[in-house]
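Bench log. Compound arrived from synthesis this morning; before running ITC I wanted a structural hypothesis for how 1,3-dihydroxyacetonephosphate sits in the protein. Inputs:
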Amino acid sequence: MSRRRIIAGNWKMNKTPGEAVALCNELKDLVKNDAVDVVYCVPAIDIVPVVEAVKGTNVHVGAENFYIEDKGAFTGEISAPMLKEAGVEYVIIGHSERRDIFGENDILINQKVKKAFASGLTPIMCCGESLALRKAGTYKEWIARQIKWDLTDVTADQVKTLVIAYEPIWAIGTGETATADQAEEVCKMIREIIADLYDQATADAVRIQYGGSMNAGNAAELLSKPNIDGGLIGGASLKPDFGKIVNA
Ligand code: 13P
């Protein structure tokens, strides 16, 4: 089963609109690769200029977050129709920073996954365990529970186009990467969970990324694993190194 590789940058809360356009121009030639889906998930205010800046290139644009209603009294939020009209194709859902800092739970995350699909956006749905759960040895149960909750009432056809990002929280922004074997163990387990919840064809189609201190030096080994179909990259997506990850 060959799945198309997907390398996505999560810019987090970095880059003003002007800086965002400059980064797109800096990376333009470095991220060329017709065999890979390349996505920049950018802050809401950068979406419009970034869509413009990557026109005519192989780069797709994603959002980092959205809210489940189309419009109304939801101060500070941005809706799926707004993202769609602006040219956004992907949206990160359930990042550990949204869960831990902004209190998002699996009920809301599940609503967001369903709303993204209903709106024609492809979710990059994140899961992953804390250091405490890793040390306690209960990380597999935790991740399995996240996947089941977050995919409640999501159809097999939808899951076939889904992107799941496994991001161990202890490896995010810490410089400590999961080893390729640790990452592969969980990505393989996630695929088995999808096979259990749906069927083998769905499990074979879903794309699973690793995220957490992925960089130009460790990307090739992580991406060589059979169940790792790409990466969700924070810090290294803001540098020319991102091109090396795309072409790893
Ligand atoms: P870093 O690559 O900076 O560790 O961030 C990973 C991440 O959270 C991507 O969503």
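What the model suggests: DSSP finds twelve helices and eight strands in the chain. The domain at 5-246 is CATH 3.20.20.70 (TIM Barrel).
ITC booked for Thursday regardless.
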